[in-house]
Design a protein that fits this description.
Length: 298
C-alpha cells in the first residue's frame, strides 16, 4: 500500500503541493487529476524519491521510499523516455538490469508482454523504427518489467488507437488483479471513470475533490435528465426555476438541472407527452472537473 501523508512542497514562495494526503491499496487504481501545473508531476517525483517534500512523508508498504525501494516502482511518463537507437530487447534488458533483474528473467517477461501486446515480431527491431503506439507499448513494458508494487501511469494511452487502448486496458487490469497499486493520471476523463474507484482533483496544489468516484458524482448537486419522446413542451421546461439548459443530443433531450429537486417539476410538464425515456443521471466526471476547476488557470 502507498501512503501519502500531509506532503507539502514549496519552490521559494510558490506552493506546488499543499498538505496532500491519500492512500492507494494493493490492487487499487487511484486517479490523480488536475490541469497542467496543478502539482501532479511534483507529487509523482516526491513519491518516487526524486525530490523531498518540505513537510509530510510517503511510504510504500510501511517503508520510506529511498533507493532501496525504488526498484518496486514503475512509471509510465507522458513524454517517452526510450533509447531509440536500441532494439526492443536491448531497451528492456537495459531497464531490467537497472532494476536488478538477471537477463533470463528479463527475456522471459519480455516475451510474455510482447505476446500480450501482439508485437512479438518487433523484439529485434530498433525503437526508432516503431510507430508511436508501439513505442508506447514498449515504454509500458519497460515500466513493469520489474513487476512493481506501485505503478504510476501518466497519460498511458497517448498515441494508441482503439484496439491498442483495449490491449493496454487489459494489461492494467491484469496488474491490478496481481495486487499492484496503481496511480492513474489522464486528462481524458472517460478513462478515469473506467478505471478509478477513488480520486483526488488538484488545483494549484490544493485538493479540491477527494473520495470515491460514485460518492463524488452522487453528492454533486447538479444533475442531468435524459428524455426521449414526442410532443415535449421544451419552452415550458426552459422556464422552470432550476433548469440550467436544455439541449438536443443524439436524438434525446438533455436537461441540466441545479439539483434533483427540480426533476419532478420537469416530469410534471412531460408526463402527458409520448415519452419513451426519462432518466435522471449524475453528470460526467468531465463536467464535474470543469465546474470544480472553475476557470482557474496557471
Amino acid at each position: 500500500m502507498l501512503k501519502v501523508e500531509n506532503i507539502t512542497k514549496k519552490y521559494g514562495e510558490n506552493v506546488a503541493v499543499n498538505n496532500l494526503s491519500f492512500t492507494v491499496d494493493a490492487g487499487e487504481i487511484f486517479g490523480l487529476l488536475g490541469e497542467n501545473g496543478a502539482g501532479k508531476t511534483t507529487t509523482f517525483r516526491i513519491i518516487m524519491g526524486l525530490i523531498d517534500a518540505n513537510e509530510g512523508k510517503v511510504t510504500l508498504d510501511g517503508k520510506k521510499i529511498d533507493y532501496s525501494e525504488t526498484d518496486n516502482i514503475g512509471f509510465v511518463t507522458e513524454e517517452r523516455s526510450l533509447l531509440t537507437k536500441l532494439t526492443v530487447q536491448e531497451q528492456i534488458e537495459f531497464y531490467g538490469t537497472l532494476k536488478g533483474l538477471d537477463k533470463d528473467t528479463i527475456d522471459k517477461r519480455l516475451d510474455y508482454w510482447l505476446e500480450k501486446f501482439e508485437i512479438t515480431s518487433y523484439k529485434n527491431r530498433k525503437i526508432k523504427e516503431l510507430s508511436k503506439g508501439n513505442q508506447q507499448k514498449i515504454q509500458f513494458i519497460s515500466a513493469i518489467i520489474n513487476e512493481p508494487k506501485l505503478l504510476i501511469l501518466d497519460e498511458p494511452f497517448t498515441g494508441l488507437d482503439p484496439i491498442n487502448v483495449k490491449l493496454m486496458k487489459d494489461a492494467i487490469y491484469y496488474l491490478k488483479e496481481k495486487g499492484c497499486s496503481i496511480i492513474f493520471s489522464s486528462h481524458q476523463m472517460e478513462y478515469i471513470e473506467d478505471f478509478c474507484e477513488k480520486l483526488i482533483l488538484l488545483v494549484k496544489g490544493n485538493t479540491i475533490l477527494d473520495g470515491k468516484l460514485d460518492d463524488i458524482k452522487e453528492n454533486y448537486a447538479k444533475k442531468n435528465i435524459m428524455i426521449k419522446g414526442e410532443d415535449i413542451d421544451i419552452s415550458a421546461i426552459k422556464k422552470l426555476k432550476g433548469v440550467i439548459s436544455v439541449e438536443k443530443t443524439r436524438g434525446e433531450l438533455e436537461v441540466k438541472i441545479a439539483n434533483k429537486e427540480v426533476a419532478p417539476k420537469v416530469f410534471n410538464i412531460i408526463k402527458n407527452s409520448n415519452i419513451t425515456k426519462y432518466d435522471v443521471v449524475s453528470p460526467s466526471l468531465n463536467e464535474i472537473f470543469i465546474a470544480s476547476v472553475g476557470g482557474i488557470h496557471e
